[in-house]
Endothelial protein C receptor isoform X4
Amino acid sequence: MLTTLLPLLPPLLLLPSWALGSQEASEGPLNFHMLQIAHFRDPYHVRYYGNASLGGHLTHRLEGPGTNVTILQLQPVQDQESWAHTETGLHLYLQQFQSFVRLVYMEQRNSVTFPLTIRCFLGCELPPEDSESSKARVFFEVALNGSSFVSFQSEDAQWVPEPQAPSTLVAYTLKQLNSYNRTRYEMREFLQDTCVQYVQTHIAVKNLKARAHASWRQILVSNVELFQPAAGFTWTP
C-alpha cells in the first residue's frame, strides 16, 4: 500500500512526453520549472494550484479542489488523444499526493495541524550557451506553511531536511521518501536526464528555427535585389 501512496513525485515523472517547445526561452539559464501548491483545510479536503513553464513562459496550469481539478495546456503542444492521457496521469498523481499527506497525518497526528499548505518547486536549469560552466542545476524543494521542509539531493539520490530544528514529522517523511527507488533513483533520473534532455532538445529546435529564419531572410533579400533595376536604367513603357 505504501508503495502506491508514497510517490511525492512531479507529474512529469508520469508524463515524459510533455512537449513544451514552441516558446522562445528567456535570456540567462534555459530552464524548465514546475510549481505545485496544495492547500489542505483538513486531511480530506485540498485545493491545488500549479503551473509549468519553459524559459519563464507559462505552458501549463492546474487549479481546483481535489475532487475536480482543472488542468490546462496553454499551448497546443499535444494532440487531443495524447493530452487526454496526460490529464488522466496528472489526476492520478494528485490523488496519490493527497493520500500520502493523509497517511503522514494518520501516523503523525501530534505533529500535523490544519490548515496547512505544501509547496513543491522543481526543475532543471541549464547555463547560457556562452557560459564556461556546462553543468545543469537540478532541484526539488518542498516547503510546509511557508517554511523550508525537505529537498532532494541529486548527487546521492537522497531526500534531506532543510536547515531547521529536527522534528518527528521531518524524520518520518524522510524515512518514507528515502525507502523507495521510485522516490529516489527515478527522481534523480527525471531531474538529471529527462528534464535536462528536454531543455537541450528545446535549444536545438530553437537554433534550427533561427537558422531557417535567417536562410529565408537571405533568400528574400536576394530576390528583392534581383528584381531591382540596375543603376542608370530607366523603364520606358
